[in-house]
Amino acid sequence: MTNRRERWERHTQLPLIALSVLFAVAYAVPVLAPQAPGWVLQGAAWAEWAVWAVFALDYATRLVLAERRWEFVRRSPLDLASVLLPLVQPLRLLRLVSTLLLAGQRVRMASQVRLTTYVAGVVLGLLVFGSLAILEIERSSPHASIRTLGDALWWSFTTMTTVGYGDLTPTTGLGRLLAVALMLSGIALLGVVTANIAAWFVARFEAEDRLDHLNHRAIQDLTAEVRELRRELAELSRQAEPGGEPAGRVPSG
């Protein structure tokens, strides 16, 4: 029987995912259109904080509904860090990281979301948000080589795949920190994908081995039955020969 916290998580999952999409749009607007009217930029900023506040309220609600609250806090360190992170230093990049972490935690609770779908979503999210973040950080630097969205996407892709051509490089400390995070994320995701593919092949081979074993046993059982039938037929043939005793009759003394 599901408890109150699990029912809350099940009912709020889709709305929170929709809010994370709204946050993505609100975060992208000032980066892609810095010359937009002030009310647009202000509205995007308020939308970011509003989405973060909803996620923080969701965490507080789950904490209250948890039967063992300390165990819930201990088992959800990323959730707590994501809620507290923007309060440490109210930067837009920190709010981005916290919202991505919180949205990712809720998506993983969905049993219908397979590992490959989750990994693909994480890769796409890191690529897009990493590009927006590095563009926002780097384009104001006088020595920056990343000044357009195309450059940012190319840099994020080469960094996540650990190729690193070196044609585009971050020049700020925060940009380099973001590069390290993308590199580590790319290595981790590559490991997950490789392990998933290997596990799929192993499962297929094991299934084929089990099928071969079952077929071998079935053939052995069938062979034993054929031998028994041949023995019975041979016995019946001997009894039917002239001078043989008919089956079912006791020979006279």
Please explain how this structure is put together:
- The longest helix is centred in the C-terminal third of the chain and has 68 residues, at 173-240.
- Helix 6 packs across helix 7 (149-160) and helix 6 runs antiparallel to helix 8 (173-240).
- It contains eight helices and no strands.
- Mean pLDDT is 78; it is low at 88-92 and 109-113.
- It has helices at residues 4-32, 38-65, 69-75, 77-88, 92-108, 115-138, 149-160, 173-240.
Entry keywords:
253 residues, mainly alpha, 8 helices, 78% helix
Describe the protein's topology:
Elements (H helix, E strand, L loop, with lengths): L3 H29 L5 H28 L3 H7 L1 H12 L3 H17 L6 H24 L10 H12 L12 H68 L13
- Count of beta strands: 0
The proportion of strand residues reads: under 5%
Q: What would the principal axes of the Cα set say about the shape? A: elongated
The poorly predicted ranges are 88-92, 109-113
| First-last Cα distance | 77 Å
* Count of helix runs: 8
The main β sheet shows up as: none
Summarize the structure.
With 253 residues, this protein is mostly helical. Helix content is 78%, strand content 0%.
